[in-house]
């Protein structure tokens, strides 16, 4: 789950832009070195973290939360696999924040129901870093239990799970609970500063955009004789759409999110192509290795979206917006060129290098302690759904509208989660695979 550290920024909906309201962006725009230190020194209310999902991102998120502010402790952990929990616990104990790890055996939970046991502990900050398939029910359960939540992206893989995310976001707002999402570009100062200018009219009327996540292949774990189908798929979750949503959802969501953020809207339709050309071995499940999407936004604004995971090809991770008076490019110095040109000053460049993966926890914890908890679910779920819409269009070969994706009855996640037999879904064939 590698995440680009190019500059990224926070967008609210159009209404928030017009009114100047800030939600998470308001806190994030203060993410300077001085504010970061002040937040770390000021916190007095203890943040007791429960970690659900102990893979690489779970270990990273837990470590970052422990460093994000003072008065933070990790007190409970859960994972389906014991070796993952044991490895992450050892890693965190031996790390720079090891003294803040207090997870005895009776607060270590293994199995498909481990998340329920973590949530039931005396925790008030739940980190969810499981494969995407499992996140929505966990977010819902944590919010129902009155816990603040930080969840990694993406949170959903299909219509049913994305609807659950929207509902959880609304419930968190009603309960005044924090709900942070790991779209870390919304907590990176250079993106925030550029986006503030874009929303202020620096580009004029936005007319088009482009976004890319082009890279080589990611990790794959060879199947072991003792593994059941379910264990093999879960340990290779990237390569099964029911677990990851395919890489357009799991990874490219970041770039799509920037397009939504800059334009101030979500796409209304998508026409996509994709396929599986090089990564065709069954060891890589059934997902595609490339997608190309034409996203249609309101006012006939179109965004070209490309993502690929194939070695030996051109690599690029970037976002670009073009307007009637200028253009923004996230590559290089992240400048705006046009009638209102802008280049980040040295101080902004320094602040942009603050680890946004850490700052997103600082911002969320600060909002909790102020009694004004951030809720990032609305825009995050919209970006998640836009990525799902692109995948459905590529898989089916059809033009997919926002409403079709949101209201889809297709449930990718198995009804029963248990170790045992689980067939690999067929590779989607455009023109043959149906819309459900």
Please, could you describe this protein's structure?
This protein is α/β, with parallel strands linked by helices. It folds into two domains: 14-185 and 369-377, 3-Layer(aba) Sandwich (Rossmann fold), CATH 3.40.50.720; 189-345 and 381-406, Dihydrodipicolinate Reductase, domain 2 (2-Layer Sandwich), CATH 3.30.360. It has 17 helices and 14 strands. It has helices spanning 14-19, 23-28, 33-42, 56-68, 82-94, 114-119, 132-144, 159-175, 189-199, 229-235, 241-244, 247-250, 253-263, 346-352, 356-369, 377-396, 402-406; strands spanning 47-52, 72-79, 108-110, 125-128, 148-151, 179-181, 206-215, 269-275, 290-297, 301-309, 316-323, 326-329, 336-338, 400-401. Helix 13 crosses helix 16 (377-396). Helix content is 38%, strand content 18%. The strands form two sheets. The chain has an eight-stranded mixed beta sheet with strand order 13-12-11-7-10-9-8-14. The model is unreliable at 1-43 (pLDDT under 50).
